[in-house]
Each structure stands twice: as C-alpha cells, then as structure tokens.
Amino acid sequence: MVNNPQQQINLFDIYTRNDKRDTKEFRFIDLFAGIGGIRIAFESVGGKCIFSSEMDEYAQRTYQTNFGEEPHGDITQINPLEIPDFDILCAGFPCQPFSQAGYKLGFEDTRGTLFFNIAEIIKEKQPKAFFLENVRGLLKHDDGKTFEVIDRVIRDLGYSLHHKIVRASDFNLPQHRPRLFMVGFKDSSTMFDFPTPQPLTFKMKDIFNAEKVNKEIGFTLRVGGRGSNINDRRNWEFYMVDGEVKRISIVEAKKMQGFPEDYIFPVSEIQAMKQLGNSVAINAVQAVAQNMIRSL
Q: What is the spatial distance between Cα 260 and Cα 190, in angstroms, rounded to a whole number?
C-alpha cells in the first residue's frame, strides 16, 4: 500500500509489523466501493474481500482492472441474504437526508436512503463489526438530525457506534481531508480506540519529488478545480513547485491518497482524478482497520 520508505516506517511498522503475522484472516465486504481504497486498507491488515458493490460504470472498470473482479451494481437491488457470510462490513456511503418521520421512527423510515441498505445488511447478516466513512458534514447535517437517526438505528440493531473526524494529514498523507469514520461492533462491550495521530514526515515536496513547494500539507484532493488559477481561493490542484506552477496529476494524486504506484487507471485523466477525489485516504483507514482487528 505504501508509496515510499518514509511512509513504510511510519505506518506499516507501527501498525502491522508486530501484529499482522498473528492476525487470523477475516472476511469483509466492500460497499459503495469506488475504486477500492477501503479494500486496499483492510487487505493490508489481513482481510479478504468476499463481496463488493459499486454502481458507477467507470469506477467499476477501474476496480476490475486492479482487483480482477467486477463489483456488483446498485446496492438497492441486492438481496442481503445472497451476500456470503462475512466478519466486517465496510462502506463509504453518500450522505442523504431522512424523512421527518424517520427522525422519530428510526430503521423503517430510513427506507429510500442508501443508509437503509447498509442497516438492512447489518440486520440480516449480523457481522462482527462495521466500518463506515462519510464527509464530516454528516455530523451536523440537518442540525444533527441525520446522524442522530444513524446512531439510533445502529444501536437499535444491537451494535455499538464509535465515531471521530479523522484527517489524512494525521496519518502521513499531506492533505487535510477530514472525514467522519464510524466503527461499530456486534458485541457492544468491545473496547475500541481510534488510532493516535502520527507526525507528518511525508510532505508536498515529497509528493512532487521537489526541493520546495509552497505548502507542506496540500489541499484536500477533490473532484474538479481544474480551471481555477493558483491564486483563486477555490484552487485545490495547483502548487508552486521549485518556482514553477504545477498541477496535481494522477501520479501525485495517487501518492496523496496512499494508493500504490502500480495502481492502474483504465479511464480518462478526468475520470481518474474524479475517482481519486472521491476515494479515501488509505493510510488513515488502514490505521483504523488495524485497531478494529485488535479489538476483535
């Protein structure tokens, strides 16, 4: 997973060198899989992916190229009982509002949202644990009501719920990228702590292999921004690199997200950058995954 020796020292050694060989293989599913960032993270700590789902055709193409399997499509068309048994559910699901009724009634009234499909799979398959990822705005979405429903539904299903805003820059990737991570266990008494942030030693100059870049921590990698000037407040793709203006390319974007150098994009540059902008900071997910395995 790691892209350079410095990252390997700070992440692989800290989280896995002493533990991975003693870790029993676990089975997980990869929902709203995108291009497989969460999958890479969970596989790196001993997991085996036995089912995936992603409906975007371009993301499906990239996923298949790198993992050798085409993800199942629309999750709303998947019968939970047809999913093989697994230990951990992983999903980077979109944020959606619930009906006003849902604020009072919980599980049944989240129907029509993609969170309901996750909850239904948890209800039917009863995995040992889950890992969910979303934008940090979910916490305050609709004055906090959306997250309140998620919290109540998860607990009504008999699971614990731990949540935290985690930044990529806390796990040696040079972009802020704050994201809401949610972790839960079927055994609600299971002890779990989110991993301790690590010093940032891999900076934007390392991303560009340069002597000097105008930022140590880059803008959060996101979709778009290609037309913005370097001085535009909306700019998140251009940097001053050794005295020259340079734009983030697929090569740099992969490094910023923690993807391996040999990860392949069989799609256009525009699609590849969109897919990377929609993906996860792999190092951060890997650190959380390792702590989940320790807790289990």
A: 33
Whether the CB-CB separation of 115 and 156 falls below 8 Å is answered with: no
- pLDDT given for residue 8 in this prediction: 34
- Angstrom CA distances, 216 to 110, 149, 212, 273, stand at 42, 38, 9, 21
Residues carrying CATH 3.40.50.150, the chain? 5-197+276-295
The verdict on whether 49 is a catalytic residue reads: no
**What are the CA-CA distances from residue 184 to residues 86, 114, 216, 230, 291 (Å)?**
15, 18, 34, 41, 12
- Joined together, the tokens standing for residue 262 give 């040999």
User: Residue 29: CB partners within 8 Å, gap ≥ 6?
Assistant: 49, 50, 51, 52, 53, 83, 86, 88, 89, 90, 121
Tokens at 13, concatenated: 């050694």
Tokens of 283: 């190092």
Tens of pLDDT, residues 83-119: 999 999 999 988 776 655 556 656 666 667 889 999 9
Architecture per CATH, domain 5-197+276-295, reads as 3-Layer(aba) Sandwich (3.40)
Could you write out the DSSP letters of every residue in 9-42? IIIIHHHTTTTGGGPPPEEEEEES-TTSHHHHHH
Q: What is the identity of the amino acid at 291?
A: N
Answer yes or no: pTM beyond 0.85. Answer: yes
Tens-digit pLDDT profile for residues 199-239: 999 999 999 999 999 999 999 988 766 667 787 777 778 99
Q: What b/e string do you get for 267-296 counting C-beta neighbours within 10 Å, with b at 16 or more? A: beeebbbbbbbbbbbbbbbbbbbbbbbebb
Interatomic CA distance for residues 296 and 291, integer angstroms:
9
Say which of 95, 139, 200, 296 is annotated catalytic: 95
